[in-house]
Amino acid sequence: MTGVTLRSDEFRALFQIIHQGLELSDAQLLNIGTSSAEVASLATSAGEVRRLMSDVSQVRIEVAADLESADSPAVGREDVTGTPTMWVSEATGNLWGRLAEYVIQASSPRELFLRTGYEHVDLGRAAARLADLASPMTPEE
Hints:
- 51% of the residues lie in helices and 15% in strands.
- The protein has helices at 8-21, 26-31, 36-52, 90-106, 109-116, 120-129; strands spanning 2-7, 58-63, 74-77, 84-88.
- Helix 1 (8-21) runs antiparallel to helix 3.
């Protein structure tokens, strides 16, 4: 499985980015290859993870090969560590990265701070961590 472990502050920043994605128009969402329903599903699952975060310093996001792109992300805790974990399809992992990139690029640093409470650079760093969820590129032969 491919995945990324995020500090709780990074996850909270990404949660705010998702919520900004809920404000995008259908045309904007279509431009990044998604729909309001997919973003809403991601926001709901991320909210469930956030509720599990009260006593932890990190969150795990895993790409689960057995999830189809239409499946909602699954949320729970890893058995061994108790770390809140969000299992997403490959398509959802890629979507989250595209959504974060779009929201960050479409907004000024001041607007992002006013809307999310996070500095532009901090949102960018958190979004860059999502690159580990993206599909690996195969080298050309």
